[in-house]
Amino acid sequence: MAYKAFSRGIFYEFQAPVWSGLSQIRDLQTYWAGIIQSNKQLFEEGKDLARLNAAYRIFQQRNEALQNEIHRLEKVLKIPPLPQHRIVVARVARRELNAWWQELTIRVGTDKGIIAGSAVIYGDGVVGRIKEVHETSSVVELVSSRSFRMAATFEGDTRPVTYQGQFNYTLGTSFGHVRDVPSDLRASEGVPLRLVSSRLGGVFPEGLLIGLVSGLEPDTNGLFTEGNVRLSERLLDIREVAVLIPIEVTVSTSDQSEEPIYDF
Amino acid sequence: MNDNTDIDKISPRKLEQDNRNPVKGFAKTNTRMRFFYGLYLALFLYLACGMGYRQLYQSDEYSKRGEQQSLRRVLQPGPRGYIYDREGKLLVGTRPRRSAVVYLGELRQEFSKAYYAKVRQAKQANHELLEQGKPTLAIKSSDLNTEARAEVLQNYLNIVNHIIGRDEQIDKRTMAKHFSQRLLLPFPLINDLSPREYAQITEQIPVNSPIQIYTDSARYYPFRSAASHVLGYVSSADAVADEDSVSDDLRTFALKGQIGRSGLEKKYDELLSGTTGERVWQVDPVGYQHDMVYEKDSQRGQSLNISLDIDLQKTAENALGNFTGAIVTIDVESGEVLVLASKPNYDLNDLSPYISNAVFKKIEEEGGWLNRAIQGMYPPGSTFKVITAITAMHDANIDPNTKFECGPYYPIGSRNFPEHGKNSFGQVDLTKALQKSCNVYCYQVSQRTGIEPLAKEAKRFGLGQKTGIELLYEGTGVVPNPKWKRDVLFDTWVAGDTANLSIGQGYLLTTPLQMACVTASIARRETRTSPTILHRARENPALFKHGGEPIGLTDYEYNKLLEGMELAAGNEGTARRIQIPGIRIAAKTGSAEFRSGNQELTLAWTIAFAPIKKPRIAIAVMVEGINPNDNYHGGSTAAPIARTVLDHYFKKLSANPVFGTEPTGF
Amino acid sequence: MIFDFRWIAVFLVNCFAVFCFQMLNDTLAPHSVYLILLGPLLVIPAFYLGAYGTIINTTLTALLWIAAYPVNANVFLPFCLIVNTFVFLNRSRLVRNLNTQIITIAFAVNLIWITWMALTAPDNKSPAWWGRIVMDGIFSQIAVIIACIWLHSFLQACLKLVHLLPETDD
């Protein structure tokens, strides 16, 4: 067993820099592709980005204000603080998405303090969980993987349900499966339910989108319903993710800066 | 060679052959061998026929027996249906009850490994003892097996403990019982996980781990103790196969389901119970599951819509507060029961999924099991005077304007029957009698009518018999008469008994539900009300026939009756504390005495209906004294409670004019 | 020959091929297509290496594969060695420069491995999952043909470059 783990580690570390390098080359390609665009196009895109940045700055200020209010109320009501996370942003070096496993390799590892089991997210919601951590890279098990399971809730409801990945159809989108859904919840194509992460499990923060549920059917027990979860199409095309590393929160640390760490 | 053989007839060549094989020669020529040939043939035929019979003719039977031996059936109970109030609010639901379990079939190898390790340890220990010259210990394989299994299961339990921060231990006795009786069923490591624990285990235990989450259901009561007696509770019971089960002859394991034990849960147990699901498993020789060969899904039971209004019910129960008593309100037209409150009550969630000894003891000590609204039988006190008044007009043709002289007491025989409070009301007619709740008036009426018309009128209004409501263990009450006293008490009826009956005392016993029905009947000018706890069970509630008959009073007499009851609720009436501005209420209070054990206790009653024109709601409130010091009166104790309930009802009605007829929920 | 270091060159070519296949899969990932191209990596080197060389190369390639993918090492490594040994022992009956023969064997090896992985995958295999397996299998088998041709040419060119292209099948 030790020999297998050792040899696997050696060969992995042999390949990891190559993946990293290829990923860097890809990023360089994107950069040069952007460089050769016309100035007018770049200017337009820059203006759009500036507007977006301005909007996000306002959201950030609002978030900070809300965060401060939460801290204040926690102190007043003497309730334990919500779990907090340190954010590490990372580029995706490699993607392995097949019927057996769905994994990403990202360009951060123990060098940036990544811990196995940490949540991984992106702009559209949940990406997955850190499965393995190496020196400079980590393997992320995607939310669409069959061995990925997490506690979730439906938006606006507090009752936990179980989400498990399934697979993705060839030339199609990814699917997951949700079960233990209370039978009073209704979903349809026109009014799908949004499945979001729950912080009850202790890994993911609350409210991150997992996918949409368009139909629910009674399960074999007759107690609950279950259904398929349509994941975001962007999930298969991710190039950048954020790893949420939980930090021990005490009264003194709750005021610590939560600036994200970038790997580039 | 046989001496009898004719040697000359045998060819030399043959002879030579036979000489080379004497046995063969002998066999061919000796007739005795034919017997053995025949015997062998017969035995062989018998064997062949037997085999043919078993393998061809009985093959189906043996094949079936083989299947039965290798197949096991697991019954999965269907979840129970819900119970809603008249507005569609959920009164009884089902909450998931999640347990961390392991499937023992997946741990067989680990059990074996642990067992052999234990055997090796035991042998090693014995070896050391031998070397030290001490006596060795007996190695009991069953004990080692149990220990090995417990160790393996404890390891898995420790994983769960670590995740959720608990410190549970495996109970070896429970484990051994599970192995011997419920091998195919998942073994629970921790029962009833909280949502947080469930989420933590879901996320932190690998998908392919033997530890899984098993979900069954427990009853959930969002309104806690409201209508606890009506709704009832459930307890666990093994799931029962449906009638159309295809595998009745297989050995069966049943997961725990629920069975109603009281209230509507018991009455409508069959309706609420879901369809039992089945899984037929092929098992290996040891009994662990191997492959599933048949599956039938469980299905939820049907839901029930009842007539209670949970808002009004809660208001009524809050109004009762810490009193012991009951409140019943009925929709006058349809007979639907809007409130059926009984105190003391209990939080139904404390009885789910099982009743602990502490909870049982507490409810027992408080007397909370009794549903006083339908089971409690009490003397109705002065509320019975409305029936006395009706008897006076209907049976004795006493004019409502006839006045009787009412002093502080009335002599009957050698006894003086007192007026309440030793009042002297002077000249009293029917309306004043009801207004002031005059006992002496009723005594005089009773002496004129006699017992039989009074008893007959009481029975005409449904007293002394069940109302027929769809609840179990309803009390009948007692309407005494001379025959009853002779048969039950072996005593003679006396005039004083009639006098007592006329004021709702003596041997007369009614339930609060019966008094509410009487009130509703009077409101409709009929003699009977058929109460129902189900909502919209009657096609046309306004035209529903309750099975009674018109009271039989003239308009003048009936109006006098109503006038008396309205005056009772007026400023100078005994029920003045029931007044609600803008609502005309007809009411009657009562204060009864009854003996409980060695104690003389008081009861406070109020019955009422409103509005007087086109009545919508009838109410009966009963407050029971539990100590001799409790000095309860209908006007001061029960009437304010009735007012609270009526006030809430009419406020709700004015806010939602269709309230009481159409549900607003789903 | 004990000191035949051709296996180093072949192994490096294999490494390069593995990385190329990974890049290909990375590019196809948004379209939910995945190619398993194991056959060429096991079959082609067996025609160019000696006995020891082929074992070392196969072992290292297998370890590279095990490190990159979550396959069962207890099954994968013996499988690779068995395949390689089989091809090595029978290569005298085959013509090295005839791509069709190499493609056929690589095709079969790839198909066996995909089938094995599909049959031994954990539970909950729905019909839709099998649909995905079949589609990926079809694409992989088509890609094996192209990959064989490319890898074979590439390997020959690399060995020629370092003057290690064997004249015979030894």
Report on the structure:
The complex is a heterotrimer of chains A (264), B (666) and C (170). Chain A is an alpha+beta fold and 264 residues long. Chain A has a domain at 84-248: Rod shape-determining protein MreC, domain 1 (Thrombin, subunit H, Beta Barrel). Chain A is 28% helix and 33% strand. Chain A has helices spanning 2-35, 39-77, and strands at 84-97, 102-106, 119-122, 125-133, 138-142, 149-154, 161-168, 174-181, 193-197, 209-213, 217-218, 225-231, 240-247, 261-262. In chain A, the strands form 2 sheets. A 6-stranded antiparallel barrel of chain A has the order 1-2-5-4-3-13. A 6-stranded antiparallel β-barrel of chain A has the order 6-7-8-12-10-9. Chain B has 666 residues and is an alpha+beta fold. Chain B folds into 3 domains: 14-57; 72-305, Penicillin-binding protein 2a (Domain 2) (Alpha-Beta Complex), CATH 3.90.1310; 310-345 and 371-655, Beta-lactamase (3-Layer(aba) Sandwich), CATH 3.40.710. Chain B contains 22 helices and 20 strands. In chain B, the strands form 6 sheets. In chain B, strands 2, 3, 4, 5 and 11 form a 5-stranded mixed sheet that branches. In chain B, helix 1 (12-20) packs across helix 2 (22-29) and helix 16 packs across helix 19. Chain B is elongated, with a radius of gyration of 40 Å. Chain B starts with 11 loop residues before the first helix and ends in an 11-residue tail after the last helix. Helix content of chain C is 71%, strand content 0%. The interface between A and C is medium-sized, with 34 and 34 residues.
Strand and helix map with partners:
The complex is a heterotrimer of chains A (264), B (666) and C (170).
Chain A: H1 2-35, H2 39-77, E1 84-97, E2 102-106, E3 119-122, E4 125-133, E5 138-142, E6 149-154, E7 161-168, E8 174-181, E9 193-197, E10 209-213, E11 217-218, E12 225-231, E13 240-247, E14 261-262
Chain B: H1 12-20, H2 22-29, H3 32-57, H4 59-70, E1 71-76, E2 83-84, E3 90-102, H5 108-131, H6 141-164, H7 172-181, E4 187-190, H8 195-204, E5 211-220, H9 228-231, E6 234-238, E7 251-254, E8 256-260, H10 263-267, H11 269-272, E9 277-283, E10 289-296, E11 304-305, H12 310-320, E12 324-331, E13 337-343, H13 357-366, H14 385-394, E14 404-406, E15 409-412, E16 415-418, E17 426-428, H15 430-436, H16 439-449, H17 451-460, H18 482-489, H19 495-502, H20 512-524, H21 555-568, E18 586-596, E19 599-610, E20 617-624, H22 634-655
Parallel strand pairs in B: 1-7, 2-11
Antiparallel strand pairs in B: 1-9, 2-3, 3-4, 3-5, 6-8, 9-10, 12-13, 12-20, 14-17, 15-16, 18-19, 19-20
Chain C: H1 6-28, H2 39-43, H3 51-68, H4 73-90, H5 99-119, H6 127-161
